[in-house]
Write a structure and sequence with these properties.
Length: 197
């Protein structure tokens, strides 16, 4: 909203409805379209990898109908100066967001894209190559290989969305222990697959 302070903007977006819906096979196509748009409109020297992650990247998994995209950038300082203004001009909400908690560094660039009705469609997380956000791809890949764990996660999200309907922070925090446990298993699982020389 125009004229909002950063604090007012944060207070508004964290109270938006948490909706979990059945998997939609159109989600990978929405990712690909957004990936193409980002590659064609953002500085090529800054943007590296672009990955679809989160629940919408796991076929069959219920999710918030918001495409999570992880983008590797060469420099977050340059991202603030050169990418944030470009995406804000296209209507994206921009936040300089802490990785954990209210103010725990490292900070990164986070964008919300909305449709014409103002409904969230994409979350874009821009981080540098060394950020632990890349572990989320291990979580995604583990769920892809373990449908039983994906079902358990889907059930958990449905319950938490009902409990924290208008509190996105509480909803996210309530999922954290499950995500951390599965990510730890994923690290061991994928390390065991790497051939040792």
């Amino acid at each position: 909203m125009e004229g909002e302070t950063p604090e007012q903007k944060i207070a508004r977006v964290v109270r938006e409805h948490v909706a979990i819906v059945p998997y939609d096979p159109v989600w990978p196509m929405l990712f690909e379209k957004e990936q193409d748009d980002l590659r064609s409109s953002l500085p090529r020297d800054l943007v590296k990898r672009i990955e679809h992650f989160g629940s919408t990247a796991v076929p069959g998994l219920a999710a918030k109908p918001i495409i999570d995209i992880l983008v590797e950038v060469a420099s977050l300082e340059e991202t603030k100066q050169r990418i944030a203004p470009l995406l804000e001009a296209k209507g994206y909400d921009y936040f300089w967001r802490p990785s954990w908690g209210d103010s725990t560094p490292p900070f990164y660039a986070w964008f919300i894209k909305r449709d014409a009705a103002g409904i969230r469609t994409h979350h874009i997380h821009m981080v540098e190559a060394h950020f632990e956000h890349w572990d989320r791809l291990l979580f995604r890949d583990y769920l892809l290989r373990h449908p039983d764990v994906a079902r358990e996660y889907g059930d958990l999200k449905m319950r938490l969305a009902a409990e924290h309907d208008r509190d996105r922070v509480a909803y996210t925090l309530a999922k954290t222990e499950f995500i951390l446990n599965v990510t730890a298993k994923a690290k061991k699982y994928f390390e065991s697959e790497v051939p040792h020389s």
